[in-house]
Specification:
By secondary structure, the protein is α/β, with parallel strands linked by helices. Helix content is 45%, strand content 17%. Strands 1, 2, 3, 4, 5, 6, 7, 8 and 9 form a nine-stranded mixed β-sheet that branches. It has a two-stranded parallel ribbon with strand order 10-11. Helix 7 packs across helix 8, helix 7 packs antiparallel against helix 10 and helix 8 crosses helix 11. It binds adenosine-5'-triphosphate. Adenosine-5'-triphosphate binds next to strand 3, strand 8, strand 9 and helix 6. Its cofactor is Zn(2+).
């Protein structure tokens, strides 16, 4: 089943259960301090917080998301994209836990020829919050094997905004990929074998004292209880399409194939190279989607994230052996793969692609200048210390600072020649750089990316102590 069909079935199912289906909001969060939309619930926050009246008390969407927090996982796990789509059904003071559990289970287990996803109930596992006996008995009532219902604590299965306000337990749904993919024992034992596909959040409490989850204080029950769920479309697609990971699904894989053609290498022959292929496929798509929502490469904020994605794509393609321009092939390929779901990509593609190609040209000029300097540094290191040669931190820093040559590339290219880099010294020099404070602040924003509640801080009656979003980043439905 194609990814677009999986999304359609989800939205059709919830429309048939009286939900108002709304289109995805932009990847650019309306909040100026938030870089990207990181979860399906973000556009619904005013309704979840009771700040605004929703057009309907049951809603559903397929939301475009970007999570830079997951960037280091990309290509290495089977399930993390920087761009991905989160399906979600929401109840604002309407139905609660029992219906949310029933809907999810019914859609997942109804046979495909009857409009569902056709997952084998034997392969489904659930986690529930420690105290949530209610959820466990509801899953059992649906027919879930009690052995497949596991218990997780505050850290994993309790959601808060990160500040005083709504909170509540959640229940996550996992699919067992089978013994070939890891050890037995459910998601508690192995999250690579058991893949999380859907998170149901039952917002029924008002909480405060959320500085530490273990010390959290439940003030009482919310008058209007909410349901907020998030299902990863690419994760459903890879499992339903019988693929090895999200990068091999129909909306992503064509870019891997194009990269194979450009590089003359085959995907699937060498794990280290496969990671690069997957990074390319992921980043090209993310860059395309971010640019189509209006972002252009720059040195700060979203533009900087985009620049990093484009540069990492080009760097990965170099490691795959391609030194010519790659985006004029990869961008149209990704656009063609995403077009069935997002026909509007065509409206801006000319301008988007021109900007991306210009960025690639500029970066390639930087690279060719840097590569000569790096060669000199590598040869110097070899002459000085032979076998255990190390490129000095000073040289790596100079490459970065003077030539804009990324440290990742210095590391990779030095490694290709059997040479290490004094990364510790490089980092030290970076830290000494006078605009470190600014760079750090930016970096933090890219990583945290979760100040979605800032507006509410202003609008809530009582000022709240805003504590940051480590919780939201871990579980941001
Ligand atoms: P994980 O622990 O696997 O990274 P998560 O707990 O961060 O996932 P949630 O914040 O609960 O995930 O998001 C809801 C759903 O969105 C997940 O169940 C998953 O299916 C999907 N999802 C989350 N992050 C990603 C990602 N980076 N790439 C693809 N799908 C994702």
């Amino acid at each position: 089943m194609r990814t677009s069909e999986i999304a359609k079935r989800y939205l059709d199912y919830f429309a048939a259960h009286d939900h108002l289906v709304v289109p995805s909001a932009s990847l650019i969060s309306p909040n100026p301090t938030t870089l990207f939309t990181i979860a399906g619930m973000v556009p619904f926050i005013p309704y979840l917080m009771g700040e605004q009246t929703p057009p309907k008390h049951r809603m559903a969407s397929n939301q475009k998301c970007v999570r830079t927090l997951d960037i280091d996982e990309v290509g290495k796990t089977t399930r993390h994209g920087t761009f991905f789509q989160m399906l979600g059904n929401f109840s604002f003071g309407d139905y609660f836990k029992e219906e949310a559990i029933h809907y999810a289970y019914e859609l997942l287990t109804t046979p495909q020829d009857k409009g569902g996803y056709g997952f084998d109930p034997e392969k489904l596992w659930m986690t529930t919050f420690t105290d949530d006996e209610e959820a466990r008995s509801m899953w059992k009532n649906e027919g879930v094997d009690p052995e497949h219902i596991q218990i997780m604590g505050m850290e994993d299965n309790f959601w808060t905004t990160g500040g005083p306000g709504p909170g509540g337990p959640c229940s996550e749904i996992y699919v067992d990929r089978g013994p070939a993919f890891g050890k037995e024992g459910g998601p508690i034992a192995d999250e690579n074998r058991y893949i999380e596909i859907w998170d149901l959040v039952f917002e029924n409490y008002e909480v405060d004292n959320v500085k530490s989850k273990t010390d959290l204080h439940i003030v009482g029950e919310l008058e209007h209880k909410n349901i907020d769920t998030g299902a990863g479309l690419e994760r459903l697609a890879y499992l339903m399409q019988g693929k090895g990971n999200i990068y091999e699904t129909d909306e992503v894989y064509p870019v891997i194939q194009a990269a194979e053609q450009l590089s003359g290498r085959k995907y699937g022959e060498d794990e280290a190279m496969d990671v690069k292929f997957r990074v390319v496929a992921d980043h090209v798509r993310s860059a395309l989607m971010i640019m189509s929502d209006g972002v252009r490469p720059s040195n700060n904020g979203r533009g900087y994230v985009l620049r990093r994605l484009l540069r990492r794509t080009i760097e990965a393609m170099r490691v795959l052996g391609v030194e010519d321009a790659v985006l004029p092939t990869l961008f149209p390929t990704s656009k063609a793969a995403m077009e069935p779901s997002y026909p509007e990509l065509n409206d801006t593609f000319h301008e988007v692609s021109e900007s991306a190609y210009g960025e690639e040209d500029a970066f390639r000029r930087t690279l060719s200048a840097g590569i000569d300097i790096l060669d000199v540094a590598v040869n110097k290191a070899k002459q000085e210390s032979g076998a255990g040669a190390v490129v000095s931190g000073d040289d790596a820093f100079k490459l970065h600072d003077t030539y804009g040559f990324p440290i990742e590339l210095t590391l990779e290219m030095a490694a290709d020649q059997g040479v290490k880099v004094d990364e510790a010294k490089f980092r030290e020099l970076m830290a000494e750089q006078k605009n470190r404070a600014r760079a750090d602040a930016l970096k933090k924003r890219h990583n945290v990316d979760l100040s979605v509640y800032d507006d509410f801080k202003k609008t809530l009656a009582k000022p709240i102590d805003f504590l940051g979003y480590t919780d939201m980043s871990a579980r941001a439905t």
